[in-house]
Design a protein that fits this description.
This protein is of the alpha/beta class. The chain is 31% helix and 34% strand. The protein contains six helices and nine strands; from the N terminus they run H-E-E-H-H-E-H-E-E-E-E-H-E-H-E. Helix 3 packs across helix 4.
Length: 174
């Protein structure tokens, strides 16, 4: 049987000079578009955390795909971590740095009961900025971070170090 890591490596597309000259973009779309690969990825991302979480948080946008599939498999809810201005009602907001500016994520603090254990899902761990902002939101809402699971980690960008003390599971490292 082919491992999820092998399936990712077989289908991962590398796009030079996107979105800017000199950037080597790692496109996971072909992995997600192939049913058996997508299934293997979701199963492998969730496996180390089975029984330790009450909900799966997905970071906008690709994290939504992964988190929804994992939540269904685990029989738990999915928590969307949205870009600023996308959620109605009372929200918590956390800003994070981008290469050229800043952005913000939001969450509805009444989406889950206090003390809920939340597993964070995203496609890529790069600098740790987006995941770090999500972790901060989860904790500010009164929930606990059960762990962080990503498809791919770009190790040279130091995201793991920026999330020190967190349990992080990545399927491939580039």
């Amino acid at each position: 049987m082919t491992s999820a890591s092998d399936l990712i490596r077989q289908r991962l597309k590398t796009v030079p000079d996107f979105p800017l000259p000199g950037v080597l973009f790692r496109d996971l779309t072909p992995v997600f578009a192939h049913g058996p690969s997508f299934r293997a990825v979701v199963d492998a991302m969730i496996a180390p955390f089975i029984g330790t979480f009450d909900a799966v948080a997905g970071l906008e946008a690709r994290g939504f795909l992964l988190a929804a599939a994992a939540a269904i498999d685990a029989g738990v809810g999915v928590l969307p971590i949205r870009k600023e201005g996308k959620l109605p009602g009372v929200t918590l907001t956390e800003r994070y740095a981008l290469e050229y500016g800043e952005a913000a994520f939001e969450v509805s603090p009444d989406a889950l009961p206090e003390g809920s254990r939340v597993l964070v899902f995203d496609d890529v761990l790069a600098t740790g900025g987006t995941i770090g902002a999500s972790v901060a939101l989860i904790e500010r809402a009164g929930w606990h971070v059960a762990g962080i699971s990503v498809v791919m980690e770009i190790s040279a960008l130091g995201g793991r170090e920026n999330l020190a003390g967190r349990e992080i599971h990545s399927l491939v490292s580039v």
